[in-house]
Amino acid sequence: MTSESGSSIPSLVNRRLALVLLSVFGTGASFYLLLSVVPVYATSLGAGAIGAGTVTGVLMFSTVITEMATPWLLSRIGYRPVFAAGVLLLGLPTLGLPAATSMVAILAICMARGIGLAVMFVTSGALVAMLVAAERRGEGVAVMGLVSLAPSVMGLPLGLWLASQVGYDFVFIAGALAALTGLVALPALPNRASEAEGSIGLKTLWRTPAQIRPATVFVATTLAAGAVVTFIPLAPTSQSASFAALALFIQAATSAIARWWAGRYGDRHGAERLLVPGVLLSASGVFSLVLIASPIAVVVGMLMFGTGFGVVQNATLALMFERARASSYGAVSALWSVAYDAGLGLGGTGFGVVASRTGYPLAFAVTAALTLCAIGPALVDRARTKSSVGRRSREVG
Prior knowledge:
Structural class: mainly alpha
Distance between the termini: 20 Å
Strand content: under 5%
Shape: globular
């Protein structure tokens, strides 16, 4: 769990891991370029707040369902063919968005893209855990986080800006091409699951409290993320689209920095220490958005939420890998990805329903309260971890 190593990132990343990380970058670029743009596109065709939220909800729902099945697919079919299918499903349907002029067509494309996202998320996470030494796994997860968040730093605001400047079609094509770059990682993947030390199903992890506690914390914080990325561009304020892009840039950049810091801190001092501070920062940031008409409140909120969300992202995944055997990495990656995508989908859909009835300020207040509920499992996890360490110390003594 701890490491005093001062070794550099180049020594952490080998050729196979570099190719996997390249596919992570392409997936992230496709995902984040379109994450806020597609709901805005749906709104331009007549969808209201509920329709915009449903776009994100359907994307993440299909992702979650597929993530539950991905460990089984990997063990039966192998990493390479499943991963290739995921790349194609993420990229090719995106090319159909320029011709999609109805909600049915948009939602069908989002569903197909969600299946591809699921495969990419689960497979990439498991491979990173396999290819990085245990004592540097938190840092390895942080590197993966930086690579996946790097597209979000530019992708979220850039997608909105490009859509307003050159049109939606350009953004859709760019997102498709970014996804298809994942094909270059195929040589780095094991062909059969047996080459990757096997995999177990999610059923065992659902019955493991040490895995469910961090996953629950992560779901609560990603609810807020789903609301933020979907509705900051649509919030009824006097601010311009450029300001919405800036707000998303601030959130993504602070998340990337915080995730990297959390990985290094967690390797040295224990990732479980970061859950409570991360939840408090996330909830506080969302609550600041109650003053959505104030540019200062939005900037401060994005700084706090981005920092807290990045910390929770890294700490939860590092803890879950730390508590699992290598044969469980595929299932762990799937469980964490399910938590991430379920939170994004429920956050986007739920916020749209609440906001359509109460307005944006109260909807952000409700979202902040739901995020704060994660304090419970975070505190329990910290207490159980301390108790477990104490027992081991007494046994050694």
